[in-house]
Amino acid sequence: MVILGLALIILGGIAILSAVFVSEPGSGGELLGFDVSTLESFFIGVAAGAAILWGFSILKWGTKRSLAHRRERKELTELNQKLERVEAERRADGDNDGDPRT
Questions:
Q1: Which secondary structure element, helix H or strand E, spans residue 49, and what is its range?
Q2: Of 7, 45, 49, 85, which residue has the fewest beta carbons closer than 10 angstroms?
Q3: Is 97 contained in some domain?
Q4: Crossing angle for the helix pair 2-22 and 38-93, to the nearest 10 degrees
Q5: Does a structural domain hold residue 102?
């Protein structure tokens, strides 16, 4: 998700930069090798801005999700280590409470 968000941001930025630096004032000009009118240039800018905003939201959501997964994994690892310690102490004490499995 983070990669998709970054890709959208980069593509939107490229579209805006090419529209600003390549097009001629007053006429639509040329955008990435295509002849575009002023109205088309405007719509490309709107779409690029929307792509950038969408990219930021995907990036934010993906980062939150990965942080939550890391936190959960860390907590589970700590609980697993605690359980292994308790089990090792139980085996060391020789306390099997009449359970034939241990």
A1: helix 38-93
A2: 85
A3: no
A4: 160
A5: no
